[in-house]
Write a structure and sequence with these properties.
alpha/beta; about 50% helix; disordered C terminus
């Protein structure tokens, strides 16, 4: 049964990449809204979890407001998918027009310094679009990691898709990926990591919207060990422009405190605070449909959701 489900999942994603990219943009946007509205009306686990997460982001929100936010959130999430399915067919001009960036000098100055740059992003708006824009606008390929998905054929699709956008994709986890990322940075390269949800056993506990959560140590550890700049990035959509907005924030400094773990923890908390401000300003664009805070995760020793 699981094999059939895996094949169906892979086929649906394949249909999306093959079919949606051929649609005119207004038709793709309308399709995304219809799918989002239907998913929201069904109130599956993803929608209810999204509302639970948003309740932390917008404390004191009424059930009615949370429902409006989750509806907007599902539309934002499906906009991500519609854009992602169409990204491989974008021209360079379309890509450049698709993102409006503030603070770009933090990235370009970091690359010019030749010591490497780590961009850390949360699951806000469309991180794939931001990555494709960065490759096109700066002329610099970057390296990232991807969580292994099931079925394996779906993981292969995602890797091929991201590589077609100019990314070098490494499988998530282990010293091998970390070592490759460090070498890229020491050579003056660019590394982009989605960094608001810990997928390892080595995450750093941070305070996030007043509660404990765990975030990856990798971005801060890489910056500390290689001398690369660590730049948090936040993304959002608005109703003013069809372009996605991005803000490259100032470099996170390495604090002058004793202990590597302590320095990594302090830097990761700074990244978490930057993410929290971006998410609070645009909560509907945070695509977190999974358990996130420590209080919601399974007890130690059990698999995390």
């Amino acid at each position: 049964m699981s094999g059939l489900r895996d094949r169906l999942t892979d086929s649906l994603y394949g249909l999306g990449w093959a079919g949606v990219r051929k649609l005119p943009e207004p038709a793709a946007q309308a399709l995304g809204r219809r799918i989002a509205d239907e998913a929201w009306r069904r109130r599956g686990k993803g929608v209810t979890r999204l509302e639970s997460n948003l309740a932390r982001v917008v404390p004191g929100a009424s059930p009615t407001r949370l429902r409006r936010l989750s509806h907007a959130g599902m539309r934002s999430y499906m906009r991500y998918w519609m854009e992602s399915f169409r990204l491989p067919s974008y021209s360079e001009q379309q890509l450049i027009r698709s993102v409006s960036v503030e603070g770009l000098h933090h990235l370009t100055d970091g690359l010019a310094a030749g010591r490497g740059v780590v961009l850390a992003l949360p699951h806000l708006a469309n991180w794939d679009l931001a990555g494709a824009w960065a490759v096109t606008a700066t002329g610099t390929r970057f390296t990232t990691v991807a969580e292994r998905l099931k079925p394996e054929s779906l993981y292969d699709r995602f890797v091929a898709y991201r590589e077609s956008l100019g990314m070098e994709v490494l499988p998530h986890g282990g010293a091998t990926a970390f070592g490759t990322l460090a070498r890229r940075l020491r050579a003056g390269g660019l590394v982009c990591l989605v960094a608001d949800r810990d997928l390892s056993a080595t995450g750093i506990e941070v305070t996030f919207f007043g509660e404990a959560a765990r975030m990856p140590a990798g971005p801060a550890l890489l910056a500390q060990q290689t001398g690369a700049r660590l730049l948090p990035v936040t993304l959002w959509y608005d109703d003013v422009s069809p372009a996605m907005n991005a803000r490259v924030h100032a470099p996170v400094p390495v604090p002058g405190i004793e202990g590597r773990r302590e320095r990594v923890a302090a830097m990761t908390q700074t990244v978490a605070d930057t993410f929290a401000a971006g998410i609070a300003a645009h909560p509907a664009d945070w695509h977190m449909l999974q358990r996130f805070w420590s209080a919601d995760l399974e007890p130690a020793g059990k698999a995390r959701t």
